[in-house]
Design goal:
By secondary structure, the chain is an alpha+beta fold. About 35% of the residues lie in helices and about 25% in strands.
């Protein structure tokens, strides 16, 4: 059930997002050196996103607002988990919650 791919260009990076089925998106990232990475992401419901965020808040013992402030100031560890957390906070439905950061 592949549909038209969405392509974005950021300087030397090319990002192509292609919907594979109702819930999955395949993202292909190509760099200037010819290296390509593919990531298959399962889209989560709003409730699943909030549940995941609450899990990060509990694990790290801080609110998402505090985390985001520290993250953007470079005052928080850079790990796979924290990268996922900051990405989840960029979900459209959360933007009104975080606009006053």
């Amino acid at each position: 059930m592949s549909t038209k791919a969405k392509t974005q260009q950021y300087d030397d990076l090319k990002i192509v997002e292609e919907r594979i089925n109702e819930h999955d998106v395949l993202t292909t990232i190509s760099g200037p050196n010819g290296r390509t990475t593919q990531i298959l992401c399962h889209e989560m419901s709003d409730e699943e996103v909030l549940e995941r965020i609450r899990g990060f808040e509990k694990k790290y013992g801080i609110t998402s607002k505090e985390f985001a402030k520290r993250w953007w100031d470079g005052d928080f560890e850079d790990t796979l988990e924290t990268n996922i957390w900051i990405r989840l906070l960029n979900c459209d439905f959360l933007q009104n919650e975080l606009k006053d950061l």
